[in-house]
Design brief:
The complex is a heterodimer of chains A (471) and B (306). Chain A is an alpha+beta fold and 471 residues long. Chain A has 12 helices and 15 strands. Chain B has 306 residues and is an alpha+beta fold. Helices cover 70% and strands 8% of the residues of chain B. Classes of the chains: A alpha+beta (471), B alpha+beta (306). The interface between A and B is large, with 76 and 70 residues.
Chain lengths: 471, 306
């Protein structure tokens, strides 16, 4: 009876080990296949320092708006800049607002712009910093008529006569367009809508809708009240792009421009209007650009360091800890695979600092195995059988493993809080590594170790389970 | 083993090293990198061979960018460090460098002063927070231990040990800054914080063993001086302390020797921190505990009277 139960117990242990190894193979296959396939849904994501690109930091001047408005203004700023970056045709531009933390003293609102693959900072900065000027002007109908008349005169005159100082009824007519004081500063947003067939609109006619902020709404209301029936010209960078007629006083701060737009033209106008509306002024604070060849080199060096580190570590652990050492290396390999899979799945943006954190975590992950192997050795010295020693070893090493991992996680969390993007990458990989390694070192090594047919009764068995210079 | 006989000798080494490191920082100070102090760095490569460094210095001096430090890098590269540059100024600098033939920009980094100041403030907060959480954590983990040394004193000893562990790499970088122009940036601070997090383990393990042995002695009614007990615990845990550090040092060495340039200083800081951290958990933390027990007369005497 007892023999049967012993052998079935053994079979269960081996079965568990086989499951662990097969899961490992599955993870390995996932990592391998998604890395080999260029179009995979799960590629590794690399930060700018490895992929090459530009990193720009702008400081927003929010001194002129009230504190309550700041988050909204920054949100709008982010949207505007994001639209401008789309001009570069970069696959994944990153634009995000960064607030200085409470401990930083002076409050600063920053905008971080990352442009993978763009290393020409000058052009990028010029493109982003370009502040297209949006103006609403009143069309001077008299001047317009006079201009037309002059043009007609010119056409009909056979000689190239010069005409200057045209006057109507003895008065000089002046500018064709009159400033109204309404500019892009007051535009909250513009959007493309389609007409519903009511109030003079054609069904499905593309209409550009402009939403002013409260100040702008007021100016616009006055303007449209005083000039019903006249034309208002919309200027972008000094050029008139549209001259709609005011049909009625507009109250509520929403202007619609309908006209002979094709949907594409309307879309372009919406884009331009949004371009013109930077809610707060920004100044460039920091720039960083990394050539893709430097990034490539860094990535290759980082990968190489990881492989070399892993091999050296494996040699050391196997020579010193023998059978528990081999098991530790298998567990460590599975740990590496799990981390790589997580990098792809989460996904984690890998930077040079992140890779350093990962390599460091590999060295730390094996710590738990060292603790366990040392404890097992002590239990064997007390004369216990291998099965018993392994169980005791794991149980008694657990407290130390737990404590040290708590200390690591504390450091990781504080680092994450401390971090700029660069440090966050390190902290995330490091903390993730600590948690995963606790699982891999304890669950995986334990399952594998107890599945092995080991005994302390023979000389060879004792040798295999001990470590260092002892026999 | 008779390690405890050499206790004062073991103690002398870390104390001397820490003093030397502090003096080094005092004399030379630390050179803050541009990510902390602001400024810019431009790395360029001359694919057809680079010109003489003096000629380059003379040429860029014409631009009036203040001090421009030119440093050769690799075979064909120069690294130029100067005040922060806006895109136009950077273009001027590149143009000036192009007078010596084809030049390729490898990387450029310009940092305004606002971010650096904030990071330095945050760094102090982070170091204080880590230190504080570790004291609390140790005081909590060792709350059951009161004789012959109170649990909070373990926490204090751990902090003294940790400060030693980060003071020495800092001293090293003060020296490297003086001798080779090495700069400390954000990654250096991260390395120090990481050392705090990792190095505490070895100390915890030694303390843990001391606690266990104290319990065993009480159970077995065995009399042993605190000094003997501490050193017995040290010997029992030494192999694993050294081995767990070695595993980390092995991978860090790989990172230092074959890893990317940007993380070499980071790896070096951590390696030094791990080495002194291992030494200090064995030969600084334990003797300090013994010394505390020796000089805190009141609780010991009252114990003996009972």
């Amino acid at each position: 009876m007892s023999e049967i139960s012993a052998s079935s117990e053994r079979a269960i242990k081996v079965f568990r080990a086989v499951i662990v190894i097969s899961l490992g193979v599955a993870v390995a296959y996932f990592v391998y296949s998604t890395s080999m396939n260029g179009n995979s849904k799960y590629p590794f994501k690399y930060g700018l320092d490895l992929a090459g690109g530009s990193h720009l930091v702008y400081v927003a001047d929010v001194s002129k708006i009230s504190e309550a408005e700041v988050p909204d203004a920054m949100e709008v700023l982010r949207d505007v800049i994001e639209r401008r970056t789309n001009v570069f045709g970069v696959s994944e531009p990153l634009v995000q607002v960064e607030r200085s933390s409470i401990v930083a003293g002076a409050k600063t609102e920053r905008l971080v712009v990352e442009l993978p693959g763009i290393t020409d900072v000058e052009t990028a900065v010029a493109e982003i910093g370009k502040t297209p000027l949006l103006e609403f002007k009143l069309v001077n109908a008299q001047a317009r008529a006079a201009e037309q008349a002059v043009a007609n005169l010119k056409d009909s005159a056979s000689t190239s006569a010069t005409i200057s100082n045209v006057s109507v009824n003895g008065e000089e007519i002046g500018e064709a367009y009159l400033d109204t004081g309404l500019t892009g500063r007051y535009v909250k947003r513009a959007q493309l809508v389609f007409g519903n067939g009511q109030t003079g609109q054609l069904a499905n006619e593309p209409i550009v809708q402009i939403e002013f902020n409260s100040e702008g709404a007021q100016i616009f209301e006055e303007l449209t009240t005083q000039h019903v029936g006249e034309q208002i010209a919309i200027f972008l960078d000094g050029e008139s792009i549209s001259e709609p007629v005011v049909r009625e006083p507009i109250i509520g701060g929403i202007a619609t421009i309908s006209g002979n737009f094709t949907p594409d033209e309307a879309k372009a106008l919406v884009k331009n209007l949004n371009f013109g509306a930077l809610p707060v002024p920004i100044t460039l604070d920091s720039t960083q650009s990394i050539g893709s060849s430097l990034g490539d080199e860094a990535l290759k060096a980082g990968t190489k360091a990881g492989v070399v580190g892993f091999v050296l570590l494996s040699i050391f652990i196997i020579l010193w800890y023998r059978v528990p050492g081999v098991v530790a290396v298998v567990a460590l390999f599975l740990y590496v695979l799990m981390m790589l899979a997580l990098f792809k799945l989460i996904p984690v943006v890998l930077t040079a600092a992140g890779i350093a954190g990962f390599i460091l975590s590999v060295g730390l992950a094996v710590d738990a195995n060292v603790l366990i192997a040392e404890r097992i050795k002590e239990e064997l010295k007390d004369g216990k059988e291998v099965d018993e020693a392994i169980k005791e070893g794991f149980a008694r090493a657990w407290l130390a493993i737990r404590d040290s991992n708590i200390a690591h996680v504390i450091a990781g969390v504080i680092l994450f809080w401390f971090g700029t993007a660069l440090i966050k990458g390190f902290a995330l990989v490091f903390s993730l590594g600590v948690i995963i390694s606790m699982f891999s070192a304890i669950t995986i090594s334990r399952t594998l170790l107890i599945a092995l047919p080991l005994t302390a009764k023979t000389k060879l068995g004792r040798f295999l389970m001990s470590s260092g210079f002892s026999r | 083993m008779t390690l405890h006989k050499y206790q004062n000798l073991f103690l002398a080494l870390p104390i001397t090293a820490a003093i030397v490191a502090l003096v080094a920082v005092g004399i030379w100070g630390l050179k803050p990198g541009i990510d902390l102090a602001g400024g810019s760095l431009l790395q360029v490569s001359y694919p057809d061979g680079r010109p003489q460094i003096e000629v380059v210095q003379r040429e860029v001096a014409k631009l009036n960018f203040g001090e421009v430090r030119v440093q050769p890098s690799d075979d064909k590269d120069f690294i130029l460090r100067q005040k922060e540059l806006n895109p136009t100024e950077k273009a001027e600098l590149l143009q000036s460098l192009a007078t010596f033939g084809t030049v390729n920009e490898v990387q450029f980094n310009s940092v305004g002063p606002s971010i650096g100041t904030e990071l330095v403030r945050k760094a102090w907060w982070a170091i204080s927070l880590v230190t504080l959480s570790i004291i609390i954590f140790i005081a909590f983990a060792f709350r059951g231990v009161s004789k012959p040394v109170a649990s909070w004193k373990y926490g204090v000893v751990a902090i003294v040990t940790l400060l030693h562990d980060i003071v020495i790499p800092t001293g090293l970088f003060a020296y490297l800054g003086y001798s080779r122009g090495a700069e400390v940036g954000v990654l250096f601070i991260v390395a120090l914080l990481t050392i705090l997090g990792i190095s505490i383990n070895d100390t915890i393990v030694v303390f843990d063993r001391i606690r266990e042995n104290l319990r065993l002695n009480t159970e077995r009614n065995k009399h042993q001086s605190f000094k003997e007990l501490v050193w017995k615990s040290v010997v029992q845990t030494m192999a694993r302390s050294i081995n767990t550090s070695l595993t980390v040092i092995v991978v860090l060495a790989a990172l230092f020797f074959v890893g990317p340039d940007s993380t070499k200083d980071f790896a070096l800081t951590l390696i030094v921190g791990m080495i002194v951290g291992t030494y200090s958990s064995i030969f600084l933390a334990a003797p300090l505990l013994v010394l505390i027990e020796k000089y805190q007369k009141v609780p010991v005497k009252s114990d003996k009277k009972e």
